[in-house]
């Protein structure tokens, strides 16, 4: 009797192990299939984003928040689009898409700190002012400046001993624990692009405008309110909005943008997948520079 019970228990364990292994294989296969499907669907959303940006450039040489690209896409069923077109939702009835396009030049570009490997005083002072407004320690900005300068100098010198390149904001986390802790606070106001860029006065938040223009936060807030009535069509219009006299040009400020981020999320049942793409608009062409997987919650518009 004891032998029979032991044999039965052993058989149950073996069967359970086989069933768990089979379930695991099926789950991995399903996740792989859903990931591949989500990536293909997001490629279509990315092409759609490129089309919107190309059309915006064709109609205006100024980039501002009233253009169609700035309107986020709330979560919508792809089956709804198919039903509106041919009367059937098909297999995509349970597939949902959400996304938005962000002007990358609405934030201060950390590449500007040292494009050739040597710190630029004006850009360093901009970062210092921004850090002060955000309540960050001065050592955070100093570490970022040193890291950007070393990375850019190494890239230009083709030095095998140079530090690893810095391509995204996430790469800055390896500079120091302090920088890693400050990144969530800095992220809404800074970016890291492959070339030096000005800040777009039509899309930048007030703290960025205050830091770049070296003006009081209240004056920057007034600029944000003024552009809601009428966007700035020239850099001199920004100066007029501040009621300042002097040079009507500023190399750190622009009213047009070339770099954008497209962030989209696909939900298939309970499975979620999101990607962020960096796009560069050159004339009527919109080039894809990089794509990376990101947490699904990043596709939601900021509150």
Describe this structure as you would to a colleague.
The chain has 303 residues and is α/β, with parallel strands linked by helices. It has three domains: 37-106 and 260-298, GSPII I/J protein-like (Pantoate--beta-alanine Ligase, Chain: A,domain 2), CATH 3.30.1300; 108-187, no CATH class; 198-257. Helices cover 46% and strands 18% of the residues. It contains eight helices and nine strands. The chain has helices at residues 2-59, 78-86, 121-134, 138-157, 177-186, 206-213, 217-229, 235-241; strands spanning 73-77, 95-103, 108-109, 190-191, 199-200, 253-254, 259-268, 271-282, 285-294. Strand 8 and strand 9 form a beta hairpin. Helix 6 (206-213) crosses helix 7. The longest helix is centred in the N-terminal third of the chain and has 58 residues, at 2-59. The N and C termini lie far apart (67 Å).
Task: Write a compact overview of the structure shown.
The protein has helices at 2-59, 78-86, 121-134, 138-157, 177-186, 206-213, 217-229, 235-241; strands spanning 73-77, 95-103, 108-109, 190-191, 199-200, 253-254, 259-268, 271-282, 285-294.
Average pLDDT taken over every residue = 86
Question: Which percent bin holds the helix content?
Answer: 40-55%
Order of helices and strands: HEHEEHHHEEHHHEEEE
Judging by the overall fold, what is the CATH architecture of the largest domain? 2-Layer Sandwich
At the first level of CATH, the class of the largest domain is Alpha Beta
Discrete helix count:
8
């Amino acid at each position: 009797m004891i032998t029979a019970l032991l044999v039965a228990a052993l058989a149950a364990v073996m069967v359970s192990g086989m069933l768990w292994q089979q379930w695991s294989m099926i789950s991995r296969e399903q996740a792989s299939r859903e990931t591949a499907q989500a990536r293909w669907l997001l490629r279509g959303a990315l092409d759609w984003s490129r089309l919107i940006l190309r059309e915006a450039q064709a109609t205006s040489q100024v980039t501002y928040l009233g253009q169609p690209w700035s309107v986020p896409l709330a979560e919508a069923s792809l089956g709804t689009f198919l039903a509106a077109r041919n009367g059937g939702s098909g297999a995509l009835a349970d597939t949902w898409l959400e996304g938005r396009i962000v002007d990358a030049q609405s934030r201060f570009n950390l590449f500007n700190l040292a494009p050739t490997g040597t710190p630029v005083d004006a850009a360093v002072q901009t970062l210092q002012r921004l850090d002060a407004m955000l309540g960050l320690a001065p050592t955070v900005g100093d570490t970022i400046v040193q890291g950007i300068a070393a990375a850019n100098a190494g890239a230009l010198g083709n030095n095998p001993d140079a530090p690893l390149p810095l391509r995204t904001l996430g790469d800055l986390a390896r500079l120091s624990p302090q920088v890693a802790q400050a990144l969530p606070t800095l992220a809404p106001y800074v970016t890291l692009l492959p070339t030096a860029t000005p800040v777009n006065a039509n899309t930048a938040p007030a703290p960025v405008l205050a830091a770049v223009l070296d003006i009081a936060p209240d004056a920057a807030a007034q600029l944000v309110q003024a552009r809601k009535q009428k966007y700035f069509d020239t850099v001199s219009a920004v100066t007029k909005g501040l009621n300042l006299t002097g040079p009507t040009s500023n190399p750190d400020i622009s009213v047009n943008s070339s770099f954008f981020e497209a962030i989209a999320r696909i939900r298939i049942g309970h499975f979620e997948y999101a990607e962020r793409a960096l796009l560069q608009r050159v004339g009527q062409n919109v080039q894809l520079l990089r794509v990376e997987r990101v947490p699904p919650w990043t596709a939601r518009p900021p509150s």
